[in-house]
Hints:
By secondary structure, the chain is an alpha+beta fold. It has 24 helices and eight strands. β1 and β2 (59-61) form a beta hairpin. The protein has three domains: 5-213, Arp2/3 complex 21 kDa subunit ARPC3; 233-432, Hypothetical protein af1432 (Orthogonal Bundle), CATH 1.10.3210; 460-625, GAF domain (Beta-Lactamase), CATH 3.30.450.40. The chain starts with a helix and ends with a helix. Helices cover 58% and strands 8% of the residues.
Amino acid sequence: MQISQRAVFVWSATLAGATLLAYSVSDVVSRPIPAEWIILLLLTAASGWATLRIPAIHVSFSISDTFSIVAALLVGPSAGAITAALDGLVLSWHMKNSRRTAERVFFNTAVPALATWTAAQVFVLLGGTRTPIDGLNSALALIAMLGIFGVLVFALNTGLVAVAISLERHESVVAIWRRHFASLWVTYLGGVFAAMLMMFLGRNNPLQALILLGPVPVILYMTFRHAMGRAEDEISHLGKVNNVYLAAIEALAHAIDAKDQVTSDHIRRVQDNSLSLAHALGITDDVQLQAIRAASLLHDVGKLAVPEHILNKPGKLTASEFEVMKRHAPVGADILSMIEFPYPVVPIVRHHHENWDGTGYPDGLSGYQIPIGARILQVVDCFDALTSDRPYRPRLQTADALQILNDRRDVMYDRRIVDAFVEIQSGQSAETVPASAGPGTAVPAPVLLEAAPPVRGAEDPAGEYLELFYKLGGALKNPTSLSSIGETLWDHLEPHMPAGAFVFFSYSDPVDALLPCYRGGAINISEDARVPLGSRVSGWVAANRKTALNADARLDLDSDSHAHDLQSALAVPACVDDRCVGVLAFYSTKAGVYTEQHRQLAEAAARIAAQCASRVSDPVVAALSR
């Protein structure tokens, strides 16, 4: 079994700390134990338990470091090491259960002991404990030695932890230290000068000095606790304001997607997948996560400046059209730069089309020059685009889309991000496979169903639906009219759909509209009713070749068609190649009743209907078209 560098480092530091603690205990018990050290131990434990927390921003701090530093300088390196270890143990106990592993507790106990003992030994070697405070020179000398002690204990304590985090996250040690630990120097500086004050006041009677100064930490704790309570109220208020802010952002994102003829599900999927991928990559910084959250909603805001005939062109863009399309990234960044975001949204939006090898746009950035949020968004957005129906092509299967991402590693995308995303998607795919089905389970199709996607049933994916489509294929082997196709579809699909009604619309090119060639269930539509292409729900489905799931049925029907009794609609396009020949529209008296399974079932049936309808010339529809 291969052992990681992080494990070697963590357990080596833990073993060294354990050895040092064993020596320190034997050293302390070999001499009379000072009463002031016992008090310092009690103060360390009490202050560790009384850690101040700000739940809203996941920050906590305590003043317990001060007492371990005082113990090291006032009593000796061994006493300081034991006190620091106790401090680390108490603070580790306050971790969340999900993070409180034995490895973390041992490491967090050993590292403070190592750092404090080493720094105290240097202080002793420099003669700090023997320096009298009886003049300016001696005071300056003591301050210098205390400064060296403070720098050492701070550097060793934070440096060892930063190295462990660096090995775990594969990030720069310096970057981690600057981001998480550099600002903690104030705590150590305060501890050092508290120790200096104790050394000065306790030259004759250290125990008396400790008793006199004992109330000071309690007063500080209560003062900070009150201040933190007020700060948390302010943070809670800011959180509510931020939610309103994000809601406004989301409304703008929906407006953008409406122009791009993409459903709101697209931006929600991109946002959810981007955040999941960021967490999988070990990104925990809240500012960075908030930036990814907002940028995933607004990354295409620049498409407001792209003409709709280019944005929704069903064919391949020309070179000049593509140049216009490429402008959406910098234009979007320019639009958003006018908003003072509290997190770096603009760089992500500007660079989410940069390629790993430098061939992207708008600035030709490469590698790690591209912001991590932009690299994440690029992979997630590409996957969602590949697995969604677009005006210029149908959606791909998940496996095919993931293969395309794999093929683009180290060329367009960061290999590490692609690997993490593929692992996430593979895990989700495995979870959706029924227990009785193997990894390749799919419903085979008869000859008539060559273009139909596999459909999985809720209970028996290889039984009920397989039988349904074979029966349907046989019944539609020789269709005589569009009406007969619609009737056959309804006869076979009605038992599997929520109770309601069904209309098989056929597209008529002369009038550029949908005509009802079959009506089933409790619905009343006139034979000469027409739905213009792009109008209502069914007309929109035909124009965009996209399914409408749980749309409002009343938006699709006239008042004389009993639409007031119908609540939800499932409308799917029936297409052959790039041509829409009709729409299958299902209606139910219940709102939001259609599921993803119903959608798959209807789309598979629509493929069959399209193939049949393309071979039928219906005189009734032809007459209505004139």
